[in-house]
Amino acid sequence: MVRLRELDEAGFLVLPDFMSPQFLSRLRRQIDELFEFEADRAGSEFKQEPGCRRLANLVDKGSVFQEILVEPRILDFVSHVLGRQFKLSSMNARSVNPAGSARQALHADMNALPDGRGAWVCNTVWMLDDFTDDNGAIRAVPGSHRSGRLPQDVLPDPRAPHPDEVLVTGPAGTVIVMNAHLWHGGVENRSSRTRCAVHGFFCRDDKPQQQYQRQWLSPSTQASLTAPMRKLLALDDPMNDRLSVDVPVRSGFLK
User: Fold this and answer.
1) pLDDT score recorded for residue 251
2) What average pLDDT does this structure show over 16-44?
3) Which of 120, 123, 128, 194 has its C-alpha lying 20 to 30 A from 205's C-alpha?
4) Helical H runs in 11-160?
């Protein structure tokens, strides 16, 4: 109950040591192999970002990501934010380069505002590296998910430090669950090493997916998925097909 209250009030929840050392090692190894294999194409299914390396469409790229998709403890927190009817919107990775990354503007994911049913976006951040004060951690403005406003509509400069912002830090293996209406953004990596995380992004079932999963997942992947995975990916949901098929990529800060 304390954790749920923190998620409700602050808009995010930090779960240290959520991943086992074995799972973290598998996840790092798969991410490293994908970055090496995809090289300059990495992230091209979504959008690429200067100063960072990105990967997209991760459910199609390894069983370790499918395990993230159906992790029950995380899904319980997502359900608390979104209600019982939700789906994966996208699963991507973001690795912030040292000495060259730019501070992100404060944003809400997909530029989304809560509607009459409440929140409809929720993000989970799986830390492959320590998030520290100097390596590009996430800054967030606690409680801003309840403002009913987007930061670019009310702040003179969403890239500037906010008086109420906090840095969300933690050791590798931590998972952050975030009501993604929260004003947040990554900061500069001033360290000498990269900082990487996987983002499992969920939305309510009556909204479009950020990346239309049925379009992106290969036939062989789709054929191998369990029924719970297919449901979370909305692969057999005609309403999702209508909502998502022609929707352009939407991001709170990537243009």
Assistant:
1) 60
2) 96
3) 128
4) 21-38, 63-69, 72-82, 151-154
